[in-house]
Amino acid sequence: MYTTHFGLHQAPFSITPNPAFFYSGNSRGEMLDALLYAVEHGEGIVKVTGEVGSGKTMLCRMLESELPEHIDAIYLVNPSLGPQEVLYAIAAELGLDPGGRRNDEVLRQLNGELIKRHGEGRQVVLLVEEAQAMPLDTLEEVRLLTNLETAQHKLLQIVLFGQPELDDHLRLPRMRQLSERITHSFFVPPLPPDQVADYLDFRLRAAGYRGAPLFSREAIKLINKVSQGIVRRVNILADKALMSAYADDSNLVREIHVRHAVRDCNFRRSQRISEGKRSIWVGAAASLAAIAAAGTALLSWLAPASP
């Protein structure tokens, strides 16, 4: 493929979250440090939100890889579980066998295991991805797990990773108790226009590239415009543009190669559809406002004059 052509050891823009390609710019490095501090010091529930493809999963993988030896990370890989199923899943992640037990029995089993690990000088952190997809009752069940504690320490730390819809759920009155348990909230922002070039260069260097800048200024500008700074989109566009440049036997990725990549991307199409729908709604709202104003004026003209 194009890796040999450009002198790369591996594909630089894979969307698989590989910690070797973690980009610490755009506050991501500081965010990782803050997450590590919050987990190490038992700071209640931590929440990380961001748009689809913004890099939340990469941040989650980095958090796990950077945790000290005495902290055990467990995953909740299926957020759509019901309240009872989520307890079984967490127990299984801890190596327990909850088969056939009632909820209260599984909870006691969990508590016993966490106390045992605490006595051995260990901490446990639960990492929940796609938390916005969790049923509200399941989120509440997860919140109840924060009640497992000693006199000085929480036995289970929880980090929720989710899309902005998670914030909508937490604003509901019935979720007030969970919302008040969240001690730190982070938002993973899109890349600003002036950092897209640095991000592309970082990924290329991490993949073994040692040459001059590989993407032209016009190519970078177009990638930024189409991706809107969303990391996954940047990766997809850059990967396809490299393939196009390779097919063109070019040693520089030009704007034309990015345009070929854009035509091959579904998210650009859906983005145009979304913008089109927004325009329709705005136009419809304006039309309705005009009709209402005209109707009011007509009724005022037809009304008899007051004596």
Mean pLDDT: 87
| First-residue to last-residue Cα separation | 88 Å
Name the CATH architecture of the largest domain. Answer: 3-Layer(aba) Sandwich
Query: What percentage of the residues does DSSP assign to strands (E)?
Result: 5-15%
Number of helices: 13
CATH superfamily assignment of the largest domain?
Answer: P-loop containing nucleotide triphosphate hydrolases
- Count of DSSP strands: 5
Structure description:
With 307 residues, the chain is α/β, with parallel strands linked by helices. It has two domains: 27-188, Rossmann fold, CATH 3.40.50.300; 190-283, Helicase, Ruva Protein, domain 3. Helices cover 53% and strands 10% of the residues. It has 13 helices and five strands. The protein has helices at 2-5, 28-40, 56-66, 83-93, 103-119, 136-144, 165-170, 176-181, 196-206, 217-227, 231-247, 255-263, 266-302; strands at residues 45-50, 71-76, 123-128, 157-162, 182-188. Strands 2-3-4-1-5 form a five-stranded parallel β-sheet, with helices on both faces. Helix 11 (231-247) crosses helix 12 (255-263). The longest helix is centred in the C-terminal third of the chain and has 37 residues, at 266-302. The model is unreliable at 272-307 (pLDDT under 50).
Write the layout of secondary structure elements.
Layout: H1 2-5, H2 28-40, E1 45-50, H3 56-66, E2 71-76, H4 83-93, H5 103-119, E3 123-128, H6 136-144, E4 157-162, H7 165-170, H8 176-181, E5 182-188, H9 196-206, H10 217-227, H11 231-247, H12 255-263, H13 266-302
Parallel strand pairs: 1-4, 1-5, 2-3, 3-4
Helix pairs in contact: 2-3, 4-5, 4-6, 10-11, 10-12, 11-12
